């Protein structure tokens, strides 16, 4: 039997939990969808509103560093994903950043017409690609294959390989370095969505040779609902990139108000409009929880938590039709575990009502995210116990749990 208390006593990250505001009695296993509020972000946002916006008014652009915040926050995120200073900017949302990066990448491979992705990619990435292709009217096409078929589908027709490293539904993890290397062998560019990677485990964009990357600020980075996203451009590519959207914040001299567009040098050219300052302040403060923490330690605890959860769920919930849909091997799994169940939605609502918060993805997947900075082994073992109670007693079989909400 696993000594859960001993695991928590030996946890080098245990003290980090105190930096988060998690409601009493809640076991929060949905940080892969929305990270919780940190105490630092709460204080920083309040200060940004009262002391900066309230007192400085428009002077805040200079006096409080609002104007330069996208680069500063971008560099802090870059340190978590293996990107050098000056290669990441915080901007817009993930969907807009997909559009910007993909349009810039396609322009760099004008003789090729295929965007290669996989059937496990997050739908918005595919929607953006479809819309961009239709708007370009240049004969491009989006080709999607099964995740395990990506390497074999890379050929000289592919302009851009566009993948999400961790499957949002199952947690399956792609081999970023291997697939990027294969894409480069056939002359394609590699673009990665890190929405379920950044802040969850080690990412090495430089070592993998990725050309472009995007990600959001509100999952494992805990930046808050609708927090600014981020994008990365490999330093050697930056002088050539020009996204299809050109806005004044990407101009070489935005306050010269020139009628013609001249892109800023470096990653700044990937910015478009005025940055969301209050949200940026919250994201910046949320990143403080990573100070002094090695991503390897986060990854080690993530594996320990998820392995314990799988073992406890399979031990306590046998015979109830739960099916593990995440990879069993943690080396090819992100920081989440997903189980399928025919009453997955209702069972998740029953769990949430009992203080264990995960989420659901159609058609039948119950998702549980493991954010090591605020979760303990005792938490995940207790969550497995509550799941067993819900299934043993058919506690999910109530009208209020069977009725679907807008957000699942």
From TrEMBL:
Residues binding pyridoxal 5'-phosphate: 94-95, 122-125, 164, 193, 196, 218, 248, 274
A GO cellular component annotation in the UniProt record: cytoplasm
Q: Which residues carry this modification: N6-(pyridoxal phosphate)lysine?
A: 219
Which UniProt keywords are listed? Hydrolase, Pyridine nucleotide biosynthesis, Pyridoxal phosphate
Per its UniProt record, the required cofactor names are: pyridoxal 5'-phosphate
GO process terms (BP): anthranilate metabolic process; L-kynurenine catabolic process; L-tryptophan catabolic process to kynurenine; NAD+ biosynthetic process; quinolinate biosynthetic process
* Keyword flag Glycoprotein: no
Q: What is its EC number?
A: 3.7.1.3
Query: Which pathway features in its UniProt record?
Result: Amino-acid degradation; L-kynurenine degradation; L-alanine and anthranilate from L-kynurenine: step 1/1; Cofactor biosynthesis; NAD(+) biosynthesis; quinolinate from L-kynurenine: step 2/3
Q: Which InterPro entries match?
A: Kynureninase, PyrdxlP-dep_Trfase, PyrdxlP-dep_Trfase_major, PyrdxlP-dep_Trfase_small
UniProt GO molecular function? kynureninase activity; pyridoxal phosphate binding
Keyword Ubl conjugation assigned: no
Q: Which residues form a coiled coil?
A: none
The UniProt similarity line reads: Belongs to the kynureninase family.
The subunit field of the Swiss-Prot or TrEMBL record says: Homodimer.
What is the stated purpose of this protein? Catalyzes the cleavage of L-kynurenine (L-Kyn) and L-3-hydroxykynurenine (L-3OHKyn) into anthranilic acid (AA) and 3-hydroxyanthranilic acid (3-OHAA), respectively.
Name assigned to this protein? Kynureninase
Query: Native species of this protein?
Result: Pikeienuella piscinae
């Amino acid at each position: 039997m696993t000594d859960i208390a001993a695991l928590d006593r030996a946890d080098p990250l245990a003290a980090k939990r105190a930096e988060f505001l998690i409601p009493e009695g809640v076991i929060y296993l949905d940080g892969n969808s929305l990270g919780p509020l940190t105490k630092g972000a709460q204080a920083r946002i309040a200060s940004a509103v009262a002391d900066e916006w309230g007192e400085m008014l428009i002077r805040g652009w200079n006096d409080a560093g609002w104007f330069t915040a996208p680069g500063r926050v971008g560099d802090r995120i870059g340190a978590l994903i293996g990107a050098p200073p000056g290669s990441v900017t915080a901007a817009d949302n993930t969907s807009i950043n997909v559009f910007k990066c993909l349009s810039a990448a396609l322009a760099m491979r004008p003789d090729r017409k295929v965007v290669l992705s996989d059937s496990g990619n997050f739908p918005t990435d595919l929607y953006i690609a479809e819309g961009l292709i239709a708007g370009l009217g240049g004969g491009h096409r989006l080709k999607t294959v099964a995740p395990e078929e990506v390497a074999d589908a890379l050929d000289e027709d592919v302009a851009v390989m566009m993948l999400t490293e961790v499957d949002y539904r199952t947690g399956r993890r792609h081999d970023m370095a291997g697939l990027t290397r294969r894409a480069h062998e056939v002359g394609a560019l590699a673009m990665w969505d890190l929405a379920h990677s950044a802040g969850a485990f080690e990412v090495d964009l430089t070592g993998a040779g990725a050309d472009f990357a995007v990600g959001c600020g509100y999952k494992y980075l805990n930046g808050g609902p609708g927090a600014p996203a981020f994008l990365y451009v490999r330093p050697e590519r930056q002088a050539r990139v020009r996204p299809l959207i050109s806005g004044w914040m990407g101009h070489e001299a935005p306050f010269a108000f020139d009628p013609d567009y001249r892109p800023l040098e470096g990653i700044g050219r990937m910015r478009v409009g005025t940055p969301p300052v209050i949200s940026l302040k919250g994201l910046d403060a949320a990143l403080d929880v990573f100070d002094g923490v090695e991503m390897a330690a986060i990854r080690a605890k993530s594996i320990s938590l998820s392995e314990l959860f799988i073992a406890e769920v399979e031990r306590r919930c046998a015979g109830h039709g739960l099916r593990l849909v995440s990879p069993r091997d943690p080396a090819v799994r992100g920081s989440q575990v997903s189980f399928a169940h025919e009453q997955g939605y209702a069972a998740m609502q029953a769990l949430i009502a009992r203080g264990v918060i995960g989420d659901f993805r159609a058609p039948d997947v119950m998702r549980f995210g493991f954010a090591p900075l605020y979760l303990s082994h005792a938490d995940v073992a207790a969550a497995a116990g509550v799941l067993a109670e819900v299934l043993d007693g058919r506690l999910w079989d109530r009208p209020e749990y069977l009725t679907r909400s807008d957000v699942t």
